[in-house]
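Case study 2.
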Amino acid sequence: MRKHLVFGLAALTALIGSTTARADVFIRVPFVTVRVGNPGPVIVNPPVTGPIVIGQPIDVPPVVVQPPRIIVNEAPPPVVVATRAPTLDEFAKTFKPQPGKYEVVIQHPVTCDPVKVCFTLPEGCPKKVHVRAREIDFDYGRTEVSIRFIRDGRVRVTE
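Prediction:
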């Protein structure tokens, strides 16, 4: 047992004695770079031209920090979808007569071109709405609003 202990200690001593420890140190500060461990020169960048007094303030140019740029993604402009003007029947089915002035675009039943029609409806609800091939009438009893489409492409409104 003693032989083993002596042999182990001898092997450990040989192992420790044969290895060397290395410590590399690298120091880098403004104007000086120092390396210890690997052979290398001391580098001074840039060369000092005048005396440097420790404790004296050094003029350092101010650092200008730019604020971050903010990029705003704007919504694209609304897309205008070209639709055709409603026919006289389509207009009559979707229009809810209320008192007031109206300016609507309707497809002319004869020329099939879109036509702007301006009309005013009186107070109250119409008793009947008559839709014919080339005209629409809003019957209020004593008053009536008629929109007639003439063959030459014009529109006549009677209030």
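The longest strand covers residues 100-107.
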